[in-house]
Specification:
The protein has about 425 residues and is an alpha/beta fold. It has three domains: about 10-230, Rossmann fold (3-Layer(aba) Sandwich); about 245-325, Ubiquitin-like (UB roll) (Roll); about 330-415, NADH-ubiquinone oxidoreductase 51kDa subunit, iron-sulphur binding domain (de novo design (two linked rop proteins), Up-down Bundle). It has 16 helices and eight strands. The protein has a four-stranded parallel beta sheet with strand order 3-2-1-4, with helices on both faces. It has a four-stranded mixed beta sheet with strand order 6-5-8-7, with no helix packed on it. Helix 5 (about 95-100) crosses helix 7 (about 130-145) and helix 14 runs antiparallel to helix 15 (about 370-385). It is globular and about 70 Å long. The chain starts with 20 loop residues before the first helix and ends in a 15-residue tail after the last helix. Bound molecules: flavin mononucleotide. Flavin mononucleotide binds near residues 57, 86, 210 and 395. Flavin mononucleotide binds next to strand 4 and helix 16.
Length: about 425
């Protein structure tokens, strides 16, 4: 069965420049704001609950439920913080909204703020996204000039200011509490939870933190209805979502699919199958912190529960495909150096352990490792996971644990061979 794709969120095939406010409005843009204003806060939240959207930033927490945690009666200001850090390797979906459809995100900010009586929203953008920040800033300025933001949003009397805030390029600042620290001007180091940001967030005030795609989906939910959006997906995981496929496939890129499509079909039909028609060797299903999967595991529905039952996690929906011929030690080496570089250093197991793991993998790849290093590697990974303030520790250990579990023979062969035994070139056009 062909995989159904949609263009509710991913509108790149329309041939229109939605960054232009006039083009955005001509396509019905900002009409959902007026509808939402008439509905009122409670009804908007109920619609988002009916849509059954699970957060698109990786953890998959139900959006409507999280919105419900933001206190209604408080004398403190409340904030909306949009997480546009997008640092997870293999993930490149939020970039689409920031670069090509920024008004969709702003419209989502307005409706979300109206739902929760918020009057200040921050879009926290990763430092490397300089051009994207310019694009979003221009869209904010255009919206302001047109009376869509500011003291009287579209004549409704509602007041909202939206600001971008640039990170400095640290992956850890995608973790929501490190992000809040960074937004407050401090080093990006995660906070202990609880309290959760919904109760004590930015500047000590209740703060809703949601991913770009989660917020950009809100106008679609309000325009078409929560139940309608829900039905694009499955029971516990509603809607359509963007997935990015990279690696050794014939048609890498961004696709919008209904939650629940089969992963094998997505790889072989949507993404055109494996380069040079090689056999598939491994798949990382949702950004680099998810457990690696083998070809036998990919007949799974792409839902948070479906991929979890298959032994990994859906994460951000960034699928990394590896063909036969890929050296799994080298692949893990790349990932481990990333996590060692990005550890914020606050927790000892992560600060010391991520570098230790990377050095052992360097030794394995270079043929310098001793037999006992394999067990040490696994032991270090096991000691990091679950023993840190934030999930970066888990993100660093899960690849090590899963690569060793699924491809241990290949690690052993590196030790026995005194180097990499994988022969032959990588598929054309890809780097080893
Ligand atoms: C190390 C680390 C990095 C993260 N990076 C991001 C990120 O770049 N973007 C994002 O939306 N969420 C990221 N998250 C998840 C956030 O902490 C948070 O769950 C998310 O922003 C909530 O939004 P959602 O409920 O809409 O998914 C990261 C988490 C961790 C532990």
């Amino acid at each position: 069965m062909a995989v159904q794709t949609y263009d509710y969120l991913l509108r790149d095939k329309h041939g229109k420049d939605y960054r232009d406010l006039a083009v955005y409005r001509a396509a019905g843009g900002y009409k959902a704001v007026l509808k939402a204003h008439q509905m009122g806060g409670e009804a908007i939240i109920n619609e988002v609950k009916a849509a059954s959207i699970r957060g698109r930033g990786g953890a998959g927490f139900p959006a409507g439920v999280k919105w419900g945690f933001v206190p209604k009666d408080t004398n403190k200001p409340k904030y909306l913080v949009v997480n546009a850090d997008e640092g997870e390797p293999g993930t490149f979906k939020d970039n689409y909204f920031l670069s090509h459809d920024p008004h969709r995100l702003i419209e989502g900010c307005i409706i979300t703020s109206m739902a929760l009586d918020i009057h200040t929203a921050y879009i926290y953008v990763r430092g490397e996204f300089k051009r994207q920040i310019e694009t979003v800033d221009k869209a904010i300025a255009d919206a302001h000039k047109a009376g869509i933001l500011g003291k009287n949003v579209l004549g409704t009397g509602y007041q909202l200011e939206v600001y971008t805030h640039s990170g400095a390029g640290a992956y850890i600042c995608g973790e929501e509490t490190a992000l809040l620290e960074s937004l407050e001007g401090k080093p990006g180091q995660p906070r202990l939870k609880p309290p959760f940001p919904a109760v004590v967030g930015a500047f000590g005030c209740p703060t809703l933190v949601n991913n770009v795609e989660t917020i950009a989906s809100v106008p679609v939910v309000i325009e078409h209805g929560g139940e309608w959006f829900h039905k694009l997906g499955v029971e516990r995981d509603g809607g359509s979502r963007l997935i990015g496929i990279s690696g050794h496939v014939k048609k890498p890129g961004l696709y919008e699919i209904g939650v629940g499509a089969n992963m094998r079909e997505v790889i072989y039909e949507l993404a055109g199958g494996i380069l040079e028609d090689r056999p598939l060797k491994a798949v990382i299903p949702g950004g680099s912190s998810c457990a690696v999967m083998t070809p036998e595991q990919i007949d799974a529905p792409m839902t948070l529960d479906g991929i979890r039952d298959a032994g990994s996690s859906f994460g951000t929906g960034g699928i990394i495909v590896m063909a036969e011929g890929t050296c799994m030690v080298k692949a893990l080496q790349r990932l481990s150096h990333f996590y060692a570089h990005e550890s914020c250093g606050q927790c000892t197991p992560c600060r010391e352990g991520t570098g230790w793991m990377a050095r052992i993998i360097d030794d394995i790849e270079a043929g310098r490792a001793r037999q006992e290093d394999l067990d040490t590697l696994l032991e270090v990974a096991d000691q990091i996971g679950g023993n840190t303030i934030c999930a970066l520790g888990d993100a660093a250990s899960i690849p090590v644990q899963s690569f060793l579990q699924k491809f241990r023979a290949e690690f052993q062969a590196h030790i026995d061979h005194g180097g990499c035994p994988i022969e032959g070139p990588m598929p054309r056009g890809t780097r080893p």
